[in-house]
Structure formats: structure tokens, C-alpha cells
User: Fold this.
Amino acid sequence: MIGNYDNEPVERIEPCRIEAIPERVADLIADLSAESRQLENRLPKPTAAALADLVRAMNTFYSNRIEGHNTPLREIERAMAQDFDADQDKRNLQLEARAHMRVQAEIDRLHHQGALHCPTSAPFILWLHAEFYRDMPDDLRRIEAGDISFLMEPGEFRSAARDIANREVAVGRHRPPSSERVAAFMEHFQRRYDLAGMGNSQKIIAMAAAHHRLNFIHPFYDGNGRVSRLMSHAIALSAGIGAHGLWSISRGLARGMTVPTEYKAMMEQADLRRRNDLDGRGNLSQEGLVEFVAWFLAVARDQIRFMSSLFDFDHLTEHLKLFVTREGLNPHSMGILEEVVIRGEMPRGDAPRATGLPERTARMVLSALIDTGVLASATPKGPVSLRFPVHVTEVVFPKLYGEAMG
Assistant:
């Protein structure tokens, strides 16, 4: 047994919050608030919704990549169409990707409807885990620890009552709280990160701080990283910096500011114990928490700026021109595409005006665009709006998905 579990106070994860916000963190919060609003208002809602679907797939790719799993965008697209690979290993990766897409889409839907529960509450975190694993086969829920093997239950914290033999968990050099203390630690976590009692600045800090502290507790036998990233996505929405899902924290965490290994290194730095009397009053290092929060927020700002550059009108239309050329479409197609980018959607009857072509010819141009998949509508005769299947994304956003195409 590692440590004395009878003397394991929940204050072990303190400090949970940054009470005196350093100037550099305050500057990052201001940048995130302003630049996320600009990104949110950059595009009309139908276009933003199509791009949010694209970013959700990207978030899934990078979240899986952090776990050491490579699921290219084409495999994610196939999974969403329930077209699973015959190879069991590839199929399992597709199932993981499909689950991530489904859960994040539900988070986004709940936020849009004003029904998103507090993302740092224990019930919400349990729901995230349960939803992610609900359709997983046994081999994706099986936990192997030495000579012990058991099936993890979706939506259940580690529990000594459920698994006495495997209660001690190690994550590298870190020793999370014991199974018998997880519930108490999560109650403390929920109290300390109650978003209802926070202003937006503290919510933005919580997006980063709670991300680390949840992983420090390691409340589940598996899936902690995915749950923490989905939780941070939900906190960003709650804090008003989610920009309708037009940016992804997972891409930033997977790539880092300079090298991919930064995420792990910064998480380990935030694990450090308090060093001296100048390093806060908690069990863990206040300076380590501040450094992690500052890094996390800088990563978020970097991703918002990256997305803003991609979703700029000039960038988007220029790359749509490349798509039109590659597909051998009528050059007048750009009149329709530019109309849709500006307005978000276009009634089919507006094709002659948008292209400057006779009605019959304009209908043929519109039909050809729809056939490529770059335009679609909710109903057979409804207005058309942009879509971004893989073959469109390859041309329109090559920087976004270069390494995700597979």
C-alpha cells in the first residue's frame, strides 16, 4: 500500500484557485475574452455551425493523439457514418473517436439551449465518463494491472468497495488519492470549482486549474484525460470564451506552444509540492499552478488566433476558389460560395443572381456544388449552406488538418 490512506486530507489538492491574479494571467484572460468574441462574431451562424462540426472532429483527432492513438480524419468521418473497419484495433479507435464526437456535440447542444450543468460538478463529470464509455466493447473497458483484470464501469469513480485489490493507482511518478478517498476529493473539487460563485475571470482560470486538479485526483481507472479535456471545453463555453465551438483546446495541448511534450511537462510541474513559505500556503506549489494556468491560457489564446486566421473571409474564399478549380467546377460557382460565406445560407432561387447566369445554367452550377458536398441543405428544397467533408477540408483548410488526414 502506498502511503497512509487513513490520513489523506482533501486539502492535498490545494491550492485549487489563484486568488491574487498575476498581471500576465490577467492579460491572457483579457485577450481570451476579446479575441474569442471576435472569432464568435466573425461568421454568420450557419457557416459557424458547419465549421464547429469541423473543429469538433479536429478536437477528437488531437484528444486521441494525446492518448497515443492515431485516428485520421477519414477514419473519424467513416465512424460517424457507422462505417467501421474490419480490423478490431482500427475499429476500436473509430469507436473512441465517435464517442468523443458524440459527447462534445451534446455538450455544445446543451450549452446552446442554456441547459448545460456546471461542468465541474461531480454529476457532470460522471456523466461525461458514462457517455463516453456507454457503447464501448469490453476490451475498451478492461483494466489490466499486473495479475489483476477487471471491467471498468462507465460513470463510476474509482472505489475501494468495488475494487479492493487495485485501489492503489500510479500515474508515472504521481500517486493519486486512494480509491477509498476519491469521492471525498471529488466533493472538495466540486466545492472549490463551483462556477456559480465565480466571475468570468475566475471561470477562465478554472478552465486550466480544474483541468490539472481533476487529473491529479485521477478519479477514474481510465479516461481521465479525455474527461478533463471535455470538461475544459465545457468550462470555456460557460465562461463565454467558447466562440460557438470554433476553437479546440485539444489541438493546442497536443502540439504545445513549441513542442508536443510541453503538456506532460507542465502537468508534472503543477504536481509539485509547495517548496517554501513564499510558495503559497497549500500542499501543492502555488507557483506551479500559476505557471500551468498561464501556459494553458496562452495555448488557448494561440488556438483562437490560429482559428481566426483560418476563418477570415479572404482566407476562406481564396481556398474555396482552389476547391472550385480542383473539382473542375464552373468559375461562376464562386458567386454562390461567396454569397453563402457572407450570408450563411442562400435560397436556391438566388443562384441566377449570385452567378449572373441564366436560371437553367445557374441551377446546374448550384447542383454541381451540392454534388461535391461543399453545399447542402436541411431539406431537399431548403436554402444551402457550407459543409466541410474530408475532401473539401483537404483543400480549404490544409493547415488545419495536414497531420490529421492520414
About this structure: Residues 88-112 form the longest helix (25 residues).
